[in-house]
Amino acid sequence: MLKTVILASGVMLGAAYMAGDALRAGLTPGGAAPAHVAARAEPEETRPGNVSLRADPDGHFRVDASVGSRRVPMLVDTGATVVALSYENGQRLGVISASDRFDARVTTANGSVGAKRVVLRDVTIGSVRVTDVAAVVLAPGAMDGALLGMSFLGRLRKLETSRDRMVMER
């Protein structure tokens, strides 16, 4: 009995600790930065086509990307195959409509969810611009925020991380 109480207490303490970290980092239960969380540091341009990002105190890289002419706060995620947008971001950017079907299946940290494949005409961070970027818009309620995935990052000439810095070069 005592062993069960100690084990349950340990699990609850661990969950509380991780939940506190997630809240301090501005993360949602799905792991993505909420749409209202702005980038914490502007990208520094070292030369045209080359930007440097500084990690937040929580170790994540967040950036305000421009998709077309609209600003979209994104969490840089090298583990995401493609750029992933919340349903609300997709609506705001005009890449989905209310009649669209979310019949593509994608696997997230919270399991399999419906999504719609889209192509973003251009995604820009500072002077780093990539055109025709594959993306998915997740079904309503599946994610809050946006992830800058490998469909953008993989098209860079250079992506380098060192301590609290990330360099992107086009």
Automatic annotation (TrEMBL):
What sort of enzyme, by top EC class, is this? hydrolase
Cite the Pfam families for this sequence: gag-asp_proteas
Keyword Nucleus assigned to the entry: answer is no
Supply the EC number(s). Answer: 3.4.23.-
The source's superkingdom equals Bacteria
What GO molecular function annotations does the UniProt record carry, in alphabetical order? peptidase activity
Could you tell me the Gene Ontology terms of the biological process aspect for this record? proteolysis
SUPFAM superfamilies in the cross-refs: Acid proteases
Keywords, sorted A to Z: Hydrolase, Protease
Q: Which InterPro entries match?
A: Aspartic_peptidase_AS (IPR001969), Clan_AA_Asp_peptidase_C (IPR011969), Peptidase_aspartic_dom_sf (IPR021109), Retropepsin-like_bacterial (IPR034122)
Recorded hits in NCBIfam families, A to Z, give: clan_AA_DTGA
Q: Could you tell me what this protein is called?
A: TIGR02281 family clan AA aspartic protease
- Please give the organism: Chelatococcus sambhunathii
